[in-house]
Amino acid sequence: MTAELSYQTPSDQAASPFQGKIPLEVGNKVLIRTATHYHVGKIQHLLEKGGVPGVVLEQASWVADTGRFTNCLTTENGLKEVEPFPDPVWVSLVSAVDITFWRHALPTVDSVRAAEEAAKHKG
User: How many domains, the chain?
Assistant: First the structure.
């Protein structure tokens, strides 16, 4: 069974009884867990690419280490290691394990580089 997705932007997204209650909607900030990676970002578009359903995330980051999963979801700056994408990124939904709301500010800096810079200035 495959999900049927169509291209959507914030202006043409139809109202549904689930609007605002599920994370997979244009404009929402989400954490997507795939079979091999985690991504956080804001959904810019829902679309199919070559018959494969996916999302385009803006202000996106690859999450190399979530730390304790509940902490990353419930605590501001709870992610252990992130690397921002310089441009929007398309993420296939075929390998998505789960998608949840991201209720924090989206990461904007490489966490490892930021920690290294902070350590240089300390000592």
Answer: 1
